Each structure stands twice: as C-alpha cells, then as structure tokens.
C-alpha cells in the first residue's frame, strides 16, 4: 500500500484516515461508454466519525466524507481543501458507494485529470440531486512516487456543509494511481482503525503477560508483596510552559527534594501548543523532566475531542510531538505519551492514532469510585482488551484491541467532603498550607497503605495561584517523603519502566532510568 503523506501537515508524516489499496472488487465490472471505451467502477467505503455539529442528532447515522477545496482555514495551503463529513440520514449503517471513472479532455504535459461520478443505484433511497462529482488530478512529480490527497492538513470539519457539495474534489499525485486506473483495479478508501480487531471476552493472565501486556486490576505486578516494592509518585503538569508558571516549577524543583538514591525528583509535563515558551520547555527537558504531548491547540469545546476523528487526533498529538522536537530539541523517541485536553478521550480514533504512531502510553482515562470506599486503586494496564465502564468512566472509550499500548489511569482523589474529583484542582480542600498538605497526604495514604499502585499528583500550575497554601502544601508534602525510603517521585515513563519489569526495593538500582 502506498503512503498518502503530502496532505498531512509537514510536522506529522503519517497516513491520514483514508488509504488507497488496489484490491479487486468482484462485485463490480467495467462498463461501456458511448464511444466504446471501458470505464471502471470504483468502490468508495464511507468511514468517518460524526462531527460535533451533528452529535445531538441521532438520525445522522451514516457519514459521507466530502472534500471541499473552498473551505479554508489558517492552516490550509491555497491548493488544498477541507475534508468534510456529509451526514446521510437514509441509512442505519455505512454502505458501499460506487463510482465511475471518466477521463477528462484537459490533459497537459504535467497533469492529467479524471472525474469520478457516482453511479445511480435504484436500491438506494437517495434524495434528488444527490449525485456528486469528485475530480481526480494526476500530477507527475519526478521527486516523489507517493499518493497524496489534497484535503486540509487538520481535516477539521469547517465551512458550510450545504455548499460543500458543489466543489467536492480531491487531488492525487503520482504515476501509480494512473497505472491502477489503467489496470482497472479498484480503489478502496478505508480507515486505519479498521485494522484493529474488536476483542471479546475478558483479559486473562494466562496469555497477557509482562512486559508488553497487563490486565486491568489492582494486583501488584510480578506477584510481589506491597512491602517489597517502591511506592511511586507521579507528579505531572498539564498545558503550556511559560513565564506565568516557571516560578512555581523553580520552587518545586530546586534540588531539595530527592529520591532515596540521591537523585533529584522529576516530573512529566504534558505540553500544549497554545502559549508555550519553547525555550522554557527546552530548559525543563535539559533538567531531566519528561516532556509529553497535550495537543497543539487545546481547543474548546470539550465535546469536539469526543468526535474529533483519527486525523484530528493525529494532527493535534503528533503535530505537537514534532513541534516539541523542532522548537525545543526534545528527541522524538523520548516523546512517548499523551494526555487528552479536558480528559476527554476520543474512543477508537484516539487510541488507533496512538498505536499507529507508536506511542507508548496514554494517561487520560478517569477511574475510581465516586466516593471513598477504601478499595485498592487500579494499576496501569495495556489496552489489549477494551476497558469496562468502571475503568473508563468518560466516554467514548475504545472498543477495539490495541496490544501493548499502556493506559496510566487517573485515579480519583477525594476532597475534605469525601467527594471525588478526577484531578486535585477540582476537589474541596481545607484552608491554607495545612489543608493542602493534609489533602495530598490523605490521598497518598490510600495507595501507600494498600497495594502501592502509582500515586498520581496530576495538576495544572494554575492550581497554585487559585488558593493560598496549595504550592507550599505540595512543597512540604514532597519534603516529607524524604523520610520514607520506599517512596520514589518518578516520571510516567519511569513508572512504566518498573511496571514492565518489576523488581524488589533491594534491586531497585537495576532500573537504569531511575539513576542519575
């Protein structure tokens, strides 16, 4: 299969949600034109996600991708169009759509044009005037031999849906497409999500084994006793890094707080592209902190992320990964994780994107009870089997299997009123430094005194300015950990290093990434 790359933003370098294959469809055959030449029917599989604009309309169940070159955004090049999703209320599930290919008379030395017309089908209940034209342009390029579709770089639904029908088109470069057409082979458009299977049945330790697979559960990896393993504390921060929050980070990471081996504590920063200072990001990376992707735009509303689709997720997450590499010098191989904005997961589109782009982990799912019932927390797990609604409580959740892709869940915290919150920012806590300190310590002890699942302090730097005592409360809590020789403050990646190859405290030096 040939890569469709040119349509993607220059920072991504990955396939968009559709790809071109040349498998023959035995249900279609060449037909005769009036001039006696053959024309070939082409199968077009509609695979798209319902955009936010139609999410509240249950009758929009089938989505037809439409390429509109006239709908532009600031990211678009002038010769590129936007991939739109045209809802069709006539069907309850996606169906095959057939087209006829017609060669245009507008040939030139460097370009030949083809138009793609939908074939009438009396079995379909289409509204009058629904026939569309798709213009295919073949350009000969001496430097590349790859397919490319001229849809918008970010594929964001935009522009007027009703107006899009008048200018539906894609542009495809390379000689290979023309050869496929000449050979009368079929072109199928298919989502990369389709390659990942639905997984029925529960995960079992009989086949799911470390280091690359772990079932959802509160059991300790390696069947070790809680007293023999480190209590890991993962300190993470979401959103941009800039002058407004660097002062907080200097206070927290001044070299005073250290792990039992004498190494300074480190954190994971899920960096978004909206208002980040990339020189400061570079400095945090040089100081040993982990840098991960938190999207380019962090755009609103929250619901947009639920319906974003594969390409939008790829543009946002992979695009941010490449920007961090280009502007802050963070090696691509070290940016292995992500967190979704607003903790709004995107279902199979998000997780297929992560798997396709070889990410190691996601940390967006919220789990845990809505009240403190003293149950041991859940350890990180892989998505070899889809999570249940208890583990992934904010929909849409993945429904397919993504072997080896780790999920580091956000274990709910509980405030002074015993009500749950996904992140400490949203909990009710006591007054001043003492109130903040007690709030953090109480939640820490739920992990430390049970199964020692990694304790996540997942916050935004804005929390420090929201209430007096929050920053100092965290500083004092981190300082108190120095008295516990079995507690380590680590990055998310460092925590996964231990989980994949668990060792006792006595052999902790075997974990290379924990040294300094």
Automatic annotation (TrEMBL):
GO terms for biological process: carbohydrate metabolic process. GO terms for molecular function: hydrolase activity, acting on carbon-nitrogen (but not peptide) bonds. It comes from the Eukaryota. Gene3D superfamilies: Glycoside hydrolase/deacetylase. Residues 66-114 have a biased composition (Basic and acidic residues). SUPFAM superfamilies: Glycoside hydrolase/deacetylase. Residues 230-349 form the NodB homology domain. Residues 15-41, 53-131 are annotated as: Disordered. PANTHER family: CHITIN DEACETYLASE-LIKE 4, PTHR45985. This is NodB homology domain-containing protein. It comes from Biomphalaria glabrata (Bloodfluke planorb). The gene is 106052585.
